[in-house]
Amino acid sequence: MCVSIFVLNSRCKCEKSFTTIPTLFNTVSNDNTDDGGEDVIEVNVGYDGGDGKKAALEAAVDVVREFASLDVVTVRIPQARREELDGHPGIRYVEKNGRSGA
User: Fold this and answer.
1) CATH number given to 28-96
2) Do 65 and 74 meet the contact criterion of CB atoms below 8 Å apart?
3) For residue 15, which phi and psi values (nearest 5 degrees)?
């Protein structure tokens, strides 16, 4: 990405001169794969007790959020781990995270 910045240049006989400066930004990746190339999905995981929460966090590629008042975490996990996580006795549900709009 480049940002154009107008520069006043007393030696320039034109009305405006400008310089284009390349810039680097930290951006959130929308990539749906992990470092190993596996498909990754963002899910909400409802758990019962410490074993369920531990299983959810260990399966995660990234932890998106942990809820203080609910036994739920939002994590990014490899698609292949979804069934394994869903079958864990300490996990109540694994559902794909979505956005709702008004």
Assistant:
1) 3.30.70.80
2) yes
3) -65, -40
